[in-house]
Amino acid sequence: MRRPPARRTDEAHTPVKARPLGRLRELLGELARTGQTVMGLVRAGQPAEAWRLYPGEEGIFDPTTRYQFYYHTHAGRPDEDGHFHVVRLFADHVVHLVAISMAPDGWPRALFTVNYWAVGDRPAALPDLTRYARRFRIDERRGPPALVRFVNLVFAAYRPAIERLQEEKLTALAAYAMAHPERNVAEDRSLEIVSRVDVDVRQDVATAASRP
């Protein structure tokens, strides 16, 4: 499986939003102090099983904004507990916005995008993807409030990074199609993670505070 080279938000000169980033750190810190994680909240007492969708097949869905997220785990990835997939739902298709990779300690470790086959995604133009990312919001009443707040804050804090990841995804898929005209790129199982950036909420808070 091909993976893009790892980079960090600060190395990529991708700005973060300092205020929501601070609120995200406070939320995750408070969960840690009480012995909880967002993974525990989304599983809600269900056993941790590879490929199982949490909290269920429908995920957390806001019928007003049409945004949804769900969590699952892949086997054989000791550095990752699992990841949240965040999508925009339409009547006949979905558009994948970003995945939030979680470390076993309950803190985000990376953001990434996937090839279309991975989530039954449909291509969308970059202006549409940018608009979907900027309008992302799920009502906290749709699930455990701290869990929904976590995903909302990731989008608020890292929106520039998410927009850049989507741009990089389209660029990478176009380049791959040019290099492999004989392949159906959208269905190529050897190409799953298309763009990726490492994140460290605590370090990113410190970095944002040091900037003028």
Fold and architecture overview:
Strands 1-2-3-4-5-6 form a six-stranded antiparallel sheet. With 212 residues, the protein is α+β, with helices and mostly antiparallel strands. It has helices spanning 18-33, 38-43, 126-134, 145-179, 201-210; strands spanning 60-62, 67-72, 82-89, 94-102, 108-114, 193-198. β1 and β2 (67-72) form a beta hairpin. It is globular.
Global shape: globular
* Major β-sheet annotation: 6 strands, antiparallel
Q: Note the gap between the termini.
A: 40 Å
**How many domains comprise the coordinates?**
1
Structural class category: alpha+beta
| Overall strand count | 6
What is the H/E order?
A: HHEEEEEHHEH
Residues in β-strands, percent: 15-25%
- Computed Rg: 17 Å
Residue windows where pLDDT falls under 50 for at least 5 positions = none
Q: Report the helical percentage.
A: 25-40%
Number of helices: 5
What is the typical, i.e. mean, pLDDT? Answer: 92
- Spatial strand arrangement across the major sheet: 1-2-3-4-5-6
